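Why Reverse transcriptase Ty1/copia-type domain-containing protein? Reviewers of the renewal asked for a concrete example.
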Amino acid sequence: MTRSRNIGAFCQAYSFVSSIEPTTIDQALSDPDWINAMHEELNNFTRNEVWTLEAKPKGARVIGTKWVFRNKQNDEGNIVRNKARLVAKGYSQVEGIDFGETFAPVARPEAVDVGPGGSTPSRAARVAVGSTAFLHLVAHIASPSRIEVPRIADFTNPSARLVMWQAFWYLTWCIRPLDFTKAIRFLLAYATHQDMKLYQMDVKSAFLNGYINELVYVEQPPGFEDPNNPNHVYRLSKALYGLKQAPRAWYERLRDFVIEKGLKIGRVDTTLFTKKMDNDLFVCQVYVDDIIFGLTNEELCKEFGNMMAKEFEMSMIGELTFFLGFQIKQLKEGTFIYQEKYTRDLLKRFKMDDCNLIETPMATNAKLEADESGIKVDQTLYRSMIGSLLYLCASRPDIMFSVCLCAQFQADPRGSHLIAVKRILRLVVSKGASFELLGYSDSDFAGCRVERKSTSGGCYLLGHSLVSWSSKKQNCVFLSTAEAEYIAAGSSCAQLLYMKQTLLDYGVKLSRIPLLCDSESAVKLANNPVQHSQTKHIDIRHHFIRDHVAKGDILLRNVGTKEQLADIFTKPLDESNFCRL
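Here is what the prediction returned.
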């Protein structure tokens, strides 16, 4: 499909976004929202003077292009923008012809050490050089959901120079989000100690700002070929996403600009820039196109933001709240980081969003071993879980040991190993660090020996604080445990909705408030409008909870009996359970 290159009339300010994420160019071209997104991307090319359309030179190497489509979400998981990215097929580039140096610093050159012993080529391993110049065997996270398994450098080679060369050669390909989280935590700790407010900004289409020295030709964008010159190609003046030299070109452009403005590059971390201002220290931490900066003087921070906006096109400037999957809250009491959205997405991806909760990542008597007689499990799924949990360790040190223990069995995972990993996932959902409302609902079926009525119990937490609770005998005699639990959940739903309205006065808006119930039948009854012999007699007023579950006001989930905090409000407990609760 061919479309005109006349994109000057495109209006970037549009109010609606598509919830569909196309997988092909044809799908995108059938959706007006994604057509707008592609026009916006091509407008960026025009404004940044990235390329020039020319006749294809004889014998010239031409690199292909493709569109990549992603829905951008905010810290609550809502889609706020359709992002179309035109990328070059950099895998077809030839070193020495299409590119030279490619290394661009992302974080300080330290690796996550998993110990030097017991390594085999089947493990996810790579050579790296730490700040102490010792060689370590390390595991690198290529992305939050994938472990990269490259070949291992030859440790037995007697030539130290060769080993060091291999180490830095592999460093060129290295992407280490866990390393950078150390720099972020360091910066957050410093800012909190100095009572400094941190801000963030995002450079729009950052790689398009970097200059390249090589002569590179790329194909015209699919779906947007020039109708008058369909066989022409673009000669690049600046970098394009997907080119191997693009990260380095962008970093050099940004580095040179901020140094010219008086900032000093870090001696160890070359993505950190500072500037002494009277008695204050201005700090600026860079992660590709994301920038965090701060100073106790907010006016000077605004000046820095304006300075950057004059040189580069910025798509976001504001207080630091969400960065690389981390949700960040800067309060008077301190700065808090958590990964609630990432955790929710993780559980949804692995189909565990309705799992029972757990209090510890691993049983104290758990002894994981090779388990060669156990049932084999999907190796790709297992590694994906491990990679995701390792990324989560950046804000959850309490699961680090358990995750690393499970990571030792990626070469040949068995059923027992998968169970252990899923237990960790059950823990991460149960311990949120956010200021959220959470309810527990329980019932003791026919506990009253006189009237044979059941007792409803409920408790409600705001953050980690218990703020409301109840214990009440139900008005009617019900015929089953599921029915009694369903009625109790309805009462708890009403209390949560009341608290939700109260929180609006504090400026806190909530949706899909979790309500935990230890009856799987009651949960299914609330989530599905079933009618059968055991439930058809239930009074319609008790289906109040079903309506609010359908609206998305309440998220009713199952919880294990031992993790049911409302149990203490429904019946007498023995000493151990009473003290535990």
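Confidence is low (pLDDT under 50) at residues 1-15, 107-178. This is the kind of structural detail the renewal will allow us to pursue systematically.
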